[in-house]
Model the fold of this input.
Amino acid sequence: MSQAKMSRRGFLKKTTATLAGTAAAPYLIPSSALGLASTVAPSNRITLGLIGCGIHGAG
Done:
């Protein structure tokens, strides 16, 4: 695999584009796709989510 060097300017362009896309996502994605269009029953609501915690989240 070749290692391509990225300039600072290229890095900043890609980072800015990613941040702009992330910031614009709530305005572009319909609320029904995010599950916000209707109320969610308390038994179906996620109150705590852990990613990559290993055995610490078990129990």
